[in-house]
Amino acid sequence: MITKIALSPNYRTSWNKMRIKKITQWIVVALAISLPAPGFGQQNQIETADSVVEIQSEAESLYQPVALSMPETPGCEVTDPGTTNCVNEMCLPECQCCNFLDQFLMSHSPVYPSMKSNRVQVGGWLDQGFTGNFQKPSNNFNLPVTFNDRSNEYQMNQLYLFMERQVNYGGDELDWGFRADLLYGTDYFYTTALGLETESDGSPHWNSANGPRTSGSSTYAMYGLAMPQLYAELYVPWLDGVSIKAGHFYTPIGYEKVTAPDNFFYSHSYSMQYGEPFTHTGILTTFQVTEQLQLLAGVARGWDAWEDPNDDAELLAGIGWNSSDKDTSINLTLTSGDQDNGVSNTANRTLVSFVLSHNFSDCLTYVFQSDFGIQDNGTINNQFQVVPAKWYSFNQYLYYDVTETFAWGARFEYFRDQNFSRVLQIPEFVAAGGNYYELTVGANWRPHPCVTVRPELRFDWSDTRSNLLNIQGPYRNFQSDYQVLLGGDVIIRF
Predict the structure, then answer these.
(1) Does residue 321 contact residue 293 with C-beta atoms inside 8 Å?
(2) What is the dihedral of CA 352, 353, 356, 357, to 10 degrees?
(3) Global pTM?
(4) CATH number given to 4-493
(5) What is the DSSP letter of 451?
(6) What is the average pLDDT score of the chain?
(7) Number of neighbours of residue 53 by Cβ within 10 angstroms
(8) What is the mean pLDDT of the segment spanning 212-221?
(9) Which of 54, 328, 330, 452 could form a disulfide with 491 if both were Cys (CB 3.0 to 4.6 A apart)?
(10) Which residue ranges make up each domain of the chain?
(11) Contacts of 276 (CB under 8 A, 6+ apart)
């Protein structure tokens, strides 16, 4: 069913605040008085998606349109999928090749076999990579690109562990399940939730405050621990199935996810980084109306928030449709509600996301995504009035399976930060532009069923400027209007 992960804009944009040192005193005062502070949302990102060990009904979720599922789906020329992936002696007879941790615990733990008999299992992955930046920024950050944000430096992005009891979707009886996720690595910074990994003022809760990362007035270590999901789930055999999820979970909004195995590319789109939430804490109900139609409804505490000091609620809603041949899916999701913008200030934030996925053939898949968001009290105009801020985006993805273990992919994105409220988060009257473009080409190679290699070449450019703040562009520590990144990562599932 639906399982996504969302984060907040605070982390994504906080880097700007620390580095804009040439801002004048009167702007600082104006901001302090009038501009809401960034909230914790998907801008910190941890995406998205559930584990790589999803049951079939979850893998086909309308809210998780998978353009290319390299770890799970054979390519164009596969004749016997039951044996193709069994390439080493560690594979089980059922070809479940990537459950090494599960096998180890079954053999060495006195408790785990009985847990397994009750459908409880564990798993995870290791994601590590390197990103070369041809601009060689002086601060060693690829910002505003997040997640793979360190330039010319190794990153262990995700050492990810999960424990779950999968719900038996589609059955005729009540069923229950749960899931708990832990993430250690550099990606923790973009997956934290207010009141869980961070204190109510945004400072670290259980992670170190000594490091190069910053959010507002707080500093953070390069590596840390986050818990992006902790929820219980109940299945009710009504209609074609109803799922009720309660707790802390990834967002159902958008296309890209926090979880590394659920994305084709190593880097992420601006839409996912700055325009969407990463996680929610609340209740989410999924109605499988028919085999092709799915409805989503829920209530949560806000973007990337474990707790809400003001007890504000947000609405989650969505509708998804799959064609009878499973080649086309359409998903429309929405979130709306008051979000915490500071210690005591709240304002409505509404986001609508549209995703279209279509398989032109067994080898060729196209995905289109568009977001539109509006934030009340989101920026300051040239009359020092607090006014709404808008952002929207258009993303296109194209994937091609060359063989059963190798695929090419491309992503082109236009992201419009119309009022400078999402990326740089500065008053709109001091800046110009606000348009961000990104072109990424990459590949997925699976030399082993448990190993995915994702090289990519990414080109970013933007017309964002601010003479007053000495911003010549958002790249190379605010001194360039473009950026070229060459890198990649390796995902090892276990």
Answers:
(1) yes
(2) -160
(3) 0.82
(4) 2.40.160.10
(5) E
(6) 82
(7) 23
(8) 87
(9) 452
(10) 4-493
(11) 6, 41, 42, 251, 253, 254, 351, 353, 371
